[in-house]
Design goal:
Oligomer: heterotetramer
Strand content of chain B: 5-15%
Radius of gyration of chain D: 27 Å
Number of strands of chain B: 8
Shape of chain B: globular
Structural class of chain D: mainly alpha
Radius of gyration of chain B: 21 Å
Mean pLDDT of chain B: 85
Number of helices of chain B: 15
Strand order of the largest sheet of chain B: 1-2-3
Order of helices and strands of chain D: HHHHHHHHHHHHHHH
């Protein structure tokens, strides 16, 4: 059909012109009056009279609302989530890292060998500046101590600041990604909304009840 | 009597908007006609093959992601097939179906990128590029659901994939496939009948079949010349022998034929994925660690496995000396081999067609230089 | 009124200075491309002079043809010359060229000196007077060309008084070309067609080199 | 001399406020002026300066708005949002861009011809601004209504070529020179159909003055002269070097063509000139084909002109967003073999119609339109048929073809379809465009 191809192309672009844009704005979204009212939880007319200043701002296109970026819960972000209490300092993560950017140093723990010997972490540094977020370290962790994080806003002006230390890791909010952690998906855990602060809940199994523990460890002996 | 002119040599790249990465060409022009082309590459060389000799078999998966970074899933697939062949691993069926779905999605994404950039090179100021990138984003969203990453997936492991697809993946995939079909329809309405695209691409950079076969060109470039050569059909790997699909061929072997074959193949991939969804069976997605440990030590020997990648035959050749890392890895990257006919395609053509032809090869400099 | 027309005089001197100054640059400049650009500027000055003389049609054609086309072609041709910046070697026929230029200049100066120049204020030519009063001019027997157009309803006198005979020269020129100088017009047209065909023949590739046909076959 | 301008309300209002004592102004109820009597020449100069200031700034402001609007529209055409961060709806984005451009380092290549390199931006910006002198923005709002207005536009726009050549040559860059060669070929080729397309309009209006052409448009000439509009619009797009004719800048081929070596405000001037050309083209299209400032009465004429202008700009942007670029030889072929013929058809048809219906009234214009539209559609169809390419077939593989193990043999003969690819285009046309379903 010679001659009709170009007009059809024009119609397609026009169709896309009237379609709402697919762009996701970040870090905040510019909204009009309706959006601002929705954000404030009022109906637009109410909003217009109740908060005239904000309304004018919204009509002028200056009102913004923060955007929650929708991502899969398996998203492999930086800012690893780490549960020190689960870590045995086995250094599997460091061994499996293709780039060798995890640095671990450990000392024997002060706990009596009778109660279960464990090693204590001295150093646990991840050089995020070279990390490629393949997740092999998380896959290698046998005790679910290390998880991928879900944060992605970790830009720094200095390369050295990109090394996360043990303290930083521990202080960071515990929003583990569901990457290689099917237990989080089974629990329908949403890392973008909630946190897992108790290390017991981050494992492959539910934390056993006190009775169960007593039965297993005290009564059986 | 004719006016004598003097050819001019112009250096294009490595920093040029249309070189699909960092590629350099020393081009000799006579007016608008190309007299000579000298491709210079290696600006993106990262030594992946050498790096692989220092990595375990699982770790190398992350390197393959970065070779052809617009079709990492297919790279993973080719590499994993080679590892499985080398170590004699029997993959889990569900893992295989999942990696076929992922691979076909990646093929669609890659073809969309190729088409979009070809039209960008045609000078369509980004509109078709953004339309195809918009659809690619949906596919990348699916990848994020599967494996948590959009581009450098590292989804596959020897014997299958590392994790089963989440529950919300399947309805999203259904919706996504419908969207893809609709968007390909749009793209075809927009451009396949467009007279400017016709006149720019038809009859330019025609390559004869014999030359293509002799230069061991594969993929859409070869099929655009009428050679029915698709490894999914000719040498089925994974479960492609249980899938029936049409091979899309064109005989013109020009830029338009290459564009057409890609668009049709993307459409056909949707069919393949639908068949995979119908046939997928429950079960583990990878063998247990007793069968396939994390540290694979394949017996001494070598193996070559190839798949029909988005750009042609993508093969991995692995040599093992019995250790935890391959003794040698070689990649048969279709981008590099398809590039070998660049001179034949360009010389005698117009300068305006240079980057269109270049784009119609569908190169990825990450794969060319590795 | 006097002062405003002295502005016109000022503009005249400016345009003349531009024309002559750039013409000097054309002759003295070693770099041929710069000379071509200066020549375009000189042509532009001439165009402005035509505007000042109210010959707007001629002025615009001067810009369109000389600046927009001929200068561009000159600059274009200059690009094919090797070693532009060092300039061309002194030509053999310098004396002849200088003599010819001097003769042409003398002829022009003589003509200019002997012409009776009249200003708009004291026009005696009956055609011009008719044009000023009637709004049209007789060009050839029985044919009239509209000159001043429709005057605004509120200021009839002002407009017909100030749009002189030279204002709308376009239609008069057209009628003249078609009626009185028809033969010359046609001959010039024929000449241009011949030149066009000659140019095409020059640029045509010899039939033996069929390689370049490849690009042609595509579209 | 100034009296010639006094039927122009823009001049009259400014000039007569400054020099109200002169007799001509007094006749129009301007009793006293700012300057004493005898200083009319100063009043003339000052009013000229004021008008130039107004027009230049209005145009530059328009360019700023256009750049923002164009980017917003691009965004919408591409399913994006467009700039929306800086100021309300991103309106300050182009201001920020302008500030950034001015503060950038001004680089001059070592090999460049410094004088011409610095001259070229001026050479391109000046003609782009000059065109605005004759555009009637509304009733009585123009700097000058030249009676050769249409020719003036042609002459001034032809100067762009020279500036592009200068820019390319002086920056001593081969890619820039390639771009300049294309530019010259393009501009010279498209000036001819552009001028010839206007002949139909000039014949209908009987004048080359833009004011007279607007007056002659009982109905907009786009209805009476569809063919002329078609050719003029395309040729004007080419003169602007806008997509699909952006061969000179062709970012995917020549990076930025002749602009490659320009930085800072010199680049900014080229950029401004490009957008000024866009506005002036839209204004000229509005004037010549959309009856300029004419409209219904209660709404002022300036509004009508602006609305039509914005509509034309939208169409230009729409074109730019939709169409891929043509190749040089195709562009030239299109001008000489396509548009040239169309203009010739248009001139002949219009001449015949005018011989039958001299000095057409509005109803006679409708009759002309009724004849011109079928002629336009048939001739455009015919030309596209002449220039178009034929579709060709896509043979499909045999679905029952056997599989072959890799490496066991060479490519089987049955895998090879269509023996001679060069003959493929000549095979029986059509068949399975959709792929044998």
């Amino acid at each position: 059909m010679i001659g009709l191809g170009l007009p059809r192309g024009f119609l397609i672009t026009l169709k896309n012109f009237v379609r709402p844009p697919v762009t996701e704005q970040y870090p905040d979204r510019h909204v009009g009056l309706l959006g601002a009212a929705k954000e404030a939880g009022m109906n637009p007319v109410h909003f217009l009279f109740k908060r005239p200043g904000d309304s004018i701002k919204a009509i002028a296109g200056l009102a913004t609302v923060p955007v929650a970026v929708t991502q899969s819960s398996r998203f492999r972000g930086n800012e690893f989530t780490f549960y020190e209490d689960r870590c045995t300092a086995c250094a599997s993560c460091a061994k499996y890292c293709p780039l060798g950017i995890i640095e671990i140093a450990s000392v024997p723990g002060q706990i009596d060998a009778q109660e279960g010997e464990s090693y204590k972490l001295e150093v646990f540094d991840i050089d995020i500046g070279r990390c490629m977020f393949c997740g092999l370290c998380v896959e290698a962790c046998p005790y679910d101590a290390l998880h991928m994080g879900t944060d992605f806003e970790r830009s720094k002006y200095v390369r050295d600041e990109l090394v996360i230390t043990k303290e930083e890791l521990f202080a960071a909010p515990k929003r583990p990604s569901a990457f290689y952690r099917p237990q989080f998906e089974e629990k329908r855990f949403d890392p973008f909304q909630e946190t897992i602060d108790d290390y017991h809940n981050a494992g492959r199994h539910e934390r056993p009840s006190d009775e169960e523990l007593k039965r297993k460890w005290v009564d059986e002996r | 009597m004719a006016v004598k002119t003097q050819p001019v040599t112009v250096n294009l790249g490595p920093q040029h908007p249309s070189t699909h990465g960092v590629f350099r060409m020393r081009v000799m022009f006579d007016g608008e006609e190309i007299v000579d082309v000298e491709p210079v590459f290696g600006y993106l060389h990262r030594g992946s093959e050498k790096l692989a000799e220092e990595r375990t078999y699982t770790q190398i998966v992350t390197l393959t992601d970065r070779m052809d970074y617009v079709s990492s899933m297919l790279n993973n697939q080719a590499y994993i097939l080679a590892v499985e062949k080398l170590a004699g691993i029997e993959p889990s069926p569900r893992g295989v179906w999942l990696r076929m779905i992922a691979g076909e999605l990646q093929r669609i994404a890659s073809h969309l990128v190729a088409t979009g950039f070809l039209l960008q090179d045609l000078g369509a100021l980004g509109t078709p590029l953004i339309y195809s990138m918009r659809e690619r984003e949906n596919i990348l969203d699916l990848f994020e659901m599967l494996c948590g990453a959009r581009i450098t997936n590292s989804y596959l492991r020897p014997g299958g994939v590392f994790m089963d697809a989440p529950g919300e993946f399947w309805p999203a995939l259904d919706r996504g496939l419908d969207d893809i079909v609709r968007s390909i329809d749009d793209l075809e309405t927009y451009l396949s009948g467009n007279e400017i695209v016709f006149s720019r691409t038809k009859g330019t950079a025609v390559l004869p079949q014999e030359l293509l076969i002799n230069a061991s060109i594969t993929g859409p470039m070869l099929r655009a010349s009428g050679v029915d050569w698709d490894l999914r059909h000719r040498a089925p790997y994974d479960y492609y022998d249980r899938i029936s699909f049409e091979r899309k061929l064109h005989t013109a072997s020009d830029n338009y034929a290459r564009y057409w074959v890609r668009v049709q193949e993307a459409r056909e991939s949707v069919n393949i994925i639908r068949q995979c969804i119908d046939q997928i069976e429950p079960g583990p997605v990878r063998p247990s660690f007793d069968d396939v440990p994390r540290l694979i030590r394949p017996p001494s020997g070598d193996a070559y496995a190839a798949i029909e990648g988005s750009k042609g035959e993508l093969g991995f050749y692995l040599v093992s000396d019995g250790g935890i890392a391959p003794y040698r890895m070689h990649v048969r990257s279709s981008s590099l081999i398809n590039l070998t006919l660049l001179r034949d395609m360009l010389i005698g053509g117009q300068f305006g067609d240079l980057f269109v032809t270049f784009g119609s090869v569908d190169l990825n400099m990450g794969e060319v230089d590795r | 009124m006097m002062e405003v027309s002295s502005l016109t005089t000022f503009a005249f001197w400016l345009a003349s200075a531009m024309t002559l100054g750039l013409a000097v640059v054309v002759v003295t400049q070693k770099d041929v491309f710069r000379a071509a650009i200066a020549l375009a500027g000189s042509f532009l000055g001439v165009g402005i002079l035509y505007f000042i003389l109210s010959a707007e049609f001629v002025g615009v054609v001067q810009i369109l043809v000389y600046v927009g086309a001929i200068s561009v072609l000159m600059a274009f041709a200059v690009m094919f010359i090797q070693d532009i910046a060092s300039g061309s070697r002194p030509s053999q026929g310098r004396v002849i060229g200088a003599t010819a230029a001097a003769l042409i200049f003398a002829a022009l100066a003589f003509t200019a000196y002997n012409t009776e120049w009249s200003s708009i204020d004291d026009i005696t030519d009956p055609v011009a007077v008719a044009a000023m009063t009637e709004g049209y001019v007789e060009v050839g027997t029985g044919d009239y060309a509209l000159i001043s157009g429709e005057a605004p309803t509120d200021s009839n006198e002002v407009v017909s008084e100030n749009r002189g005979v030279l204002v709308d020269s376009t239609s008069a020129l057209g009628v003249m070309l078609i009626r009185e100088y028809m033969l010359a017009f046609e001959i010039i047209g024929l000449l241009l067609v011949a030149a066009l065909i000659g140019g095409l023949l020059l640029m045509r590739n010899p039939p033996s080199s069929s390689k370049t046909e490849k690009g042609d076959a595509s579209a | 001399m100034p009296e010639a301008f006094l039927d122009n309300s823009l001049w009259r209002n400014i000039y007569c406020v400054l020099a109200g004592d002169s007799s001509t102004c007094a006749a129009r109820d301007y009793s006293s002026g700012f300057f004493p009597a005898g200083m009319e020449w100063l009043a003339f100069l000052v009013s000229a300066a004021i008008i130039i200031f107004l027009i230049v700034n209005a145009v530059l402001g328009g360019v700023i708005v256009l750049i923002w609007g164009e980017r917003r529209l691009f965004g919408r055409f591409q399913s994006r949002t467009g700039p929306n961060r800086w100021g309300p709806f991103g309106t300050l984005t182009s201001v920020a861009d302008a500030v950034k451009t001015m503060f950038k380092e001004d680089l001059v290549p070592a090999e460049a011809d410094k004088i011409l390199f610095n001259l070229a931006p001026v050479l391109i910006a000046a003609p782009a601004l000059t065109v605005f002198a004759i555009i009637p923005w509304g009733v009585g709002t123009y700097v000058a209504d030249l009676n050769i207005g249409v020719l003036f536009i042609m002459a001034i726009t032809s100067l762009t070529t020279l500036s592009v050549l200068t820019a390319a040559w002086s920056s001593a860059n081969r890619i820039a020179i390639l771009s300049a060669l294309r530019s010259v070929a393009l501009l010279i080729s498209y000036e001819i159909p552009m001028a010839l397309a206007l002949v139909g309009v000039i014949m209908l209006a009987g004048s080359m003055s833009l004011g007279d052409i607007i007056a002659a448009q009982g109905i907009p000439f786009i209805i009476v002269q569809p063919l002329a509009f078609f050719v003029f619009f395309i040729a004007a797009m080419a003169e602007m070097a806008r997509a699909p004719f952006d061969l000179t800048e062709a970012e995917s081929e020549l990076a930025a063509g002749y602009l490659n070596d320009y930085a800072s405000m010199k680049f900014g001037l080229f950029f401004l000139a490009e957008f000024m050309a866009e506005i002036s083209t839209a204004a000229i299209v509005t004037t010549l084909f959309l009856s300029g400032w004419k409209g219904f009465d209660p709404i002022p004429s300036h509004f009508w002109f602006g609305a039509k202008l914005i509509f034309v700009l939208f169409v230009i942007i729409w074109f730019r967003m939709t169409l891929p670029r043509l190749r040089v030889d195709q562009v030239l072929k299109f001008a000489w073999k396509g548009l040239f013929e169309l203009t010739m058809i248009n001139i002949i048809v219009t001449a015949v119609l005018l011989a039958i219906l001299p000095n057409p009234s509005t109803s006679e214009l409708w009759i002309m339109a009724a004849i011109n539209w079928p002629v336009a559609i048939i001739s455009i169809w015919g030309v596209s048929k002449l220039l178009g390419t034929a579709p060709y077939s896509h043979p499909q593989p045999d679905p029952n073809a056997p599989s072959y193990p890799v490496g066991s043999e060479s490519i089987p003969t049955d895998a090879v379809l269509g023996a001679e690819p060069s003959n493929a285009a000549n095979q029986a046309p059509q068949a399975q465009q959709e792929g044998g379903n």
